[in-house]
Amino acid sequence: MKQLLVDKSSGDSIKVKISNIVFGSEDKIIISGPCSVEDYENMIKIARKLKRLGVHMIRGGAFKPRTSPYDFQGLQEEGLKILKQVGCEVQLPVVTEIMDTRDIEMVSGYSDMLQVGSRNMYNYSLLKELGRSKVPVLLKRGMSATLSEWLYAAEYILSFGNPNVVLCERGIRTFETYTRNTLDLNSVAVLKQKYRLPVIVDPSHGTGMKELVPNMCLASIAAGADGLIIESHINPDNAVSDARQTISISSLEKIISKVNKLKEIY
Asked: Which helix (H) or strand (E) segment is 218 a member of?
């Protein structure tokens, strides 16, 4: 069998550079922002606060894959324009979700990094085109994906010429129903030991409960994660999407302070 590009035996660990930040370096990269881009006013307020906290990248969804077709689907290209404008104003690179091969060129024009969501991890046509594009990719684990399936999804992108892949553990679906998902930190430890790609953790989707997010952020760093992606909002209880798992800016500030202390140990 052909040696996988993701294996450490095939080369040095891969570092992914976006602007002046590097995934896979000693820094623990913090990505934060609302689940969905709602409007310019809220987005710029959030972004300015995130910038002051030392957040490295801002996130926000413009295309939202929802289980129900009647739920909020995002602001589409108007949301991308807001995200790009806000990112430029506060000088933070942005990451947003890509869902369709037809949108890669358009979304790439607004975003510094393209996120492949859990539902699209198995979308091999999309993964191949992202491989050809060379744009940095944040590849979230499928909600029921094994570690091997997740790595093969990354392999599609690498094998088509794009080494700029960051993995994101966001919890998997198990028999446990208390939390939204089961955050698999075992996978983080395995990835850091055996594979070349940087890996970050999404404790917001991993737990679905804002009160659990701070502890799981610290557990993720202790497991070896290269960073975190956290949903935050200036008024989290009224966030349009995922309010139950979205934390306040003050809570995020405490998390970042503890992560900065913890990274000196791990």
From this structure: helix 213-223
Q: Which two tokens stand for residue 199?
A: 């890996």
What single letter denotes the amino acid at residue 30? I
Nearest alpha carbon to residue 194 among 167, 160, 156, 173: 167
Bridge partners, 114 (sequence order): 96, 137
34 contacts: CB under 8 Å, gap ≥ 6: 42, 43, 46, 59, 60, 231, 232, 233, 239, 240, 241, 246
- What is the predicted pLDDT for the residue at 66? 62
> Rounded distance, CA 118 to CA 231, Å?
16
Q: Measured at the alpha carbon of residue 49, what is the angle toward residues 207 and 188, in degrees to the nearest 5?
A: 35
Please count the CA atoms within 13 angstroms of the CA of 220 that sit on its side-chain side. Answer: 34
Q: How far apart are CA 95 and CA 107, in angstroms?
A: 10
Q: Comparing C-alpha atoms, which of 69, 73, 67, 65 is closest to residue 38?
A: 73
C-alpha–C-alpha distance, residues 131 and 176, integer Å: 35
Query: So what's the pLDDT on residue 71?
Result: 64
pLDDT of residue 219: 97
What is the SS3 assignment for 115?
strand
Per-run averaged pLDDT (10 residues), the chain, 266 residues: 85 95 96 94 97 97 71 78 97 96 95 97 98 96 97 97 98 96 98 97 98 98 97 94 95 97 82
Domains of the chain (ranges; CATH) run 26-64+72-262 (3.20.20.70)
